[in-house]
Amino acid sequence: MIGKGYCVQADLEKKLQAEILGREPGNSILTCIQCGTCSGSCPLADAMDAGPRALFALIRDGQVEQALRSNTSWYCVSCYQCMVQCPQQIPITDIMYLLKQLSLEQGLVPRDNKMPDLYAAFERQVNLFGKVSEALLMADYGIKHPLDVMANAAAAVKLLAKGRLHLVPRKIEAPRRLQAMIDAAGQKEHAR
Amino acid sequence: MIYGFFPGCAYQAAAGYKESVDSLCNLLGIELREIEDWNCCGATAAFSCDRHKALALTGRLFALAARQGFDEIVTVCNACYSTLKKAAKLLGSDPGLLENVNRSLKAESLELSAPVPVKHLLEVMFRDREKLSWPEGPCRLPKDIKVATYYGCQLTRPWQNVPRALRPDLMEQLFTVAGLETVDHSARTLCCGASHAVAYPGQCRVLVSRIVNEIKAKGGTLVATICPLCQFNLDQGQHGSYRAKLPVAYFTQVLGLALGLPPAELGLKKLLVPLKNIPAG
Lengths: 192, 281
Prior knowledge:
- The complex is a heterodimer.
- Chain A has twelve helices and no strands.
- By secondary structure, chain A is mostly helical.
- By secondary structure, chain B is α/β, with parallel strands linked by helices.
- Chain B has eleven helices and seven strands.
- Chain B is 41% helix and 9% strand.
- In chain B, α1 (17-28) packs across α11 (251-258), α2 packs across α3 and α3 packs across α4 (78-93).
- In chain B, the strands form two sheets. Chain B has a four-stranded parallel beta sheet with strand order 2-1-3-4, sandwiched between helices.
């Protein structure tokens, strides 16, 4: 079983399935021949609770909640290997992006995956400064995951010694204007 | 040659990437003109969370580049490259998305009519190789250093506009111009784990060792990379795991050494696994 928590209502699950399969890039899931080349070529398939092939089978079967709760799309590292190898030319990586966005919108992000926190910290950096400085990104992410950051402490010392750790953020000229631009874009979230 | 340059966020702290790009471009007669007031491309994070916000970020970059008169954007990072390529494809083919972006760009008083083409520095150096001023003379890299190229994943796929995407040889061909030969191996486009290495170092270590072991087995003693994240993951990812560590440099550092640039100008001291046996400049 994937995940725990509240259940998405059946009609909502149907609606989500229609949303995924009804347009690009999700509609190409219908052409999947279940050969498993994607799962076989994925560098992090071992960590996923379902490989891309199994995930597409769930979606076609109507088990969209389980698909959105799965950690598969969050483990996707965007290497695009599956997409290049797919005999049906399904844009698998693009579908992973869509599933991540949908699971965020529906509050179904798997709690045991750390990538949503890393991406959120990244977004905060962009919103605040318009540019990302690694040290500040790690500090922000480290609030929720101190062990990950401490594991990198030795590397951080080395980087600092080599003048590669920048503790003062670089900024674009007017971060507030950029923030307004991002906010305006975000208001169209559901206009997909 | 003048290029509209998008350095990206990771460039500044990358191990001697900036130093070597600057010295090499200076030598070859390339002027990199930085896109003024550039912002983060959003990388994989922005597209994972909200497509419209991600497109606004890239849209701002395209609009700035166009306004500043650049007809192409040159990057030095695979993640910037693929993010901008993805955005260019979406904005170029879907007028609705372009309209949305233009609505958000009003906050920045910017306008975008069409996305600007995106290239990696490696691509443009290779494309324009005959127009560049290559110094005469043999390859200056010591013969006992065997270079293996590593492209990582996002440059070659799924855009397919890099020739032989599954077995690219752009770097090999560019190195040949400098008289530098490389070692053949099969890990050129395997994934390094990218940003997952922060949250899942254990899983990503396996990915790094696949690459490092393959290169070592084929006799490589120096890796040439084209992306700050690849370089960092391969360099840092060997920490504590290997007895004989494999130095991992940028293609600009390797090319600089081959063309006789002094090591001090190539930022080689910033590598974590040291590159030994190079003649002091």
